[in-house]
Amino acid sequence: MTRPAVIYARVSTARQGRSGLGLEAQREAISRFMEAEGLEPVGEFVEVETGKGADALDRRPELKAALDAARRARCPVVVAKLDRLSRDVAFIAGLMTQKVPFIVAELGADADPFMLHLYAALAEKERALISARTAAALAAAKARGKVLGGARGDAGARGRQHIEGARQALQARADTRATDLASVVAEARAAGVTSQNGIARFLNAKGIPTARGKEWTNVQVAALLKRLEG
Questions:
Q1: Sign of dihedral through CA atoms 101, 34, 8, 18?
Q2: Which of 108, 114, 184, 230 has its CA 20 to 30 A from that of 145?
Q3: What pLDDT was estimated at residue 155?
Q4: What is the pLDDT of residue 167?
Q5: Which helix (H) or strand (E) covers residue 37, if one does?
Q6: Which residues contact 122 (CB under 8 A, 6 or more apart)?
Q7: Distance of CA 46 to the CA centre of its chain
């Protein structure tokens, strides 16, 4: 006998919709999970909105609609990953007060509210560390750019600054990608998967590609972990 459930999926930007964290990947993960757990969808709500901030619920009408639908059907809301709700601990805590159960497919049906808070706290901390390192790197690069500039060789300095700006943009995108994957890495480690090869297999098994759309290797995982752990 199947049980009802409401589906909720979210991407932060249109670009994210083309990545491994896009809507189709979320739908596929949720579909597999619901089939295995005997859950039947009674509604699906899709949002394109940031998950930052403890007040993010005010900017996410689709999540509000999903909550209302779940209350009417007296069923849970299912998401693919915890960060599709939010990486903000305060936001997750606020959702718990809505009296609607949430099921995170990647964590399993038995993950209780305490576990959701724990994973959110880990992801929030990793995001803060990455933001701090990115800000420090940009400040250092800007300082180096000032030294390189000057009255002589302005054209060359501008060229170097252009290259440096492009490099910083690539680095910022890589940091954002790493932040998006922080909760997946935390999940792998919580499951006892700690080696680079193991995490690569973990990511590949979930169907999450690299930024270039390829499968993960231990070399790429090493770069990811370096960004996350500094």
A1: positive
A2: 230
A3: 53
A4: 60
A5: helix 23-37
A6: 182, 183, 186
A7: 16
Report residue 178 as tokens.
Answer: 């790493």
Query: What are the structure tokens assigned to 38, written together?
Result: 């005997």
Q: What pLDDT, in 10s, does the model give residues 29-71? A: 999 999 999 999 999 999 887 656 555 567 789 999 999 999 9
Give the residue ranges of the chain where pLDDT is below 70: 13-21, 50-57, 113-131, 145-175, 229-230
Please tell me the distance from the alpha carbon of residue 212 to that of residue 18, in angstroms, as a whole number.
11
* DSSP class of 44: E
**If we measure between CA atoms, which residue out of 9, 1, 24, 37 comes closest to residue 207?**
24
Q: What is the 3-state secondary structure (H, E, C) of 114-180?
A: HHHHHHHHHHHHHHHHHHHHHHHHHHHHHHHHHHHCCCCCHHHHHHHHHHHHHHHHHHHHHHHHHHH
Q: What is the pLDDT of residue 73?
A: 94
**What pLDDT does 149 receive?**
46
Residue type (1 letter), 12: S
Could you count the other beta carbons within 10 Å of the beta carbon of residue 36?
A: 10
Tokens linked to 80: 């693919």
Of 60, 13, 6, 2, the residue nearest 36 (C-alpha): 2
User: What string of DSSP letters covers 72-129?
Assistant: HHT--EEESSGGGT-S-HHHHHHHHTTT--EEETTT-TT--HHHHHHHHHHHHHHHHH
For the entire predicted model, the pTM comes to 0.53
Cα–Cα dist 136/123, whole Å: 20
**pLDDT, position 41:** 95
CA 7 – CA 162 distance, rounded (Å): 44
